[in-house]
Design goal:
This protein is mainly beta and 150 residues long. It has one domain: Sandwich (Hypothetical Protein Tm1070, Chain: A), CATH 2.60.290. Helices cover 0% and strands 48% of the residues. The protein contains no helices and ten strands. Strands 3, 4, 5, 6, 7, 8, 9 and 10 form an eight-stranded antiparallel sheet that branches. It has a two-stranded antiparallel sheet with strand order 1-2.
Length: 150
C-alpha cells in the first residue's frame, strides 16, 4: 500500500498498489483453522427442478495457501449427540463448496432439523455459509461468513 496526500488538507488515504501480471502474486495463507456455523437447517422439500433448485446449505471453503487443507466437520444438534467427523480435502489455491445435503459418511444430516457445525483445518482457510431455500416459488438465498474461532 502506498500513502497518497489528498487535496485541501484531507488525511492520507491508503491506496492499493496495482500489480501488472497475468496471475495473482498472492502466496500467503488467509483465514483461520477453526470455524463455527451456529445455524443450520435443511428443508425436506423445495420448488423447481432438481438438483439445481433443491433447498440446501453449503459451506464454501477457500484455501488460498500453498498447502492442501485437510478439513474435518462435526455437526451438533439440540437433542442428540454430534455426528462426524466428515472429512475431505481442499487443494492448495482452490475452493470447494460442500453441500450439507450431500454429506453421508458417517451419516446423513437429517432434514427439517436444526443443527450447527464446527469446521477444523490443518491450515488457515476462509469459510462462508450459504443457504438456498426453495420452499416457496419466491426463492430465498442468503450467505454469511462463518464465525472464525481460531
Amino acid at each position: 500500500m502506498k500513502s497518497e496526500k489528498r487535496k485541501s488538507g484531507e488525511s492520507n488515504v491508503q491506496q492499493p498498489e496495482v500489480v501488472e501480471s497475468q496471475h495473482s502474486t498472492f502466496n500467503g495463507e488467509i483465514g483461520k483453522k477453526t470455524w463455527a456455523i451456529a445455524e443450520g437447517y435443511i428443508p425436506s422439500y423445495g420448488t423447481g427442478p432438481e438438483p439445481q433448485m433443491t433447498s440446501h446449505e453449503t459451506a464454501c471453503i477457500l484455501n488460498a495457501g500453498n498447502e492442501d487443507a485437510h478439513i474435518r466437520m462435526t455437526i451438533y444438534f439440540s437433542d442428540k449427540d454430534p455426528i462426524g467427523p466428515y472429512e475431505f480435502t481442499v487443494s492448495a489455491k482452490r475452493t470447494k463448496h460442500i453441500r450439507f445435503n450431500d454429506l453421508t459418511d458417517p451419516a446423513p444430516i437429517p432434514k427439517d432439523t436444526d443443527y450447527a457445525c464446527v469446521i477444523e483445518s490443518n491450515v488457515p482457510v476462509v469459510v462462508q455459509h450459504t443457504r438456498l431455500d426453495t420452499r416457496q416459488a419466491e426463492n430465498a438465498l442468503f450467505s454469511t461468513m462463518a464465525y472464525p474461532v481460531a
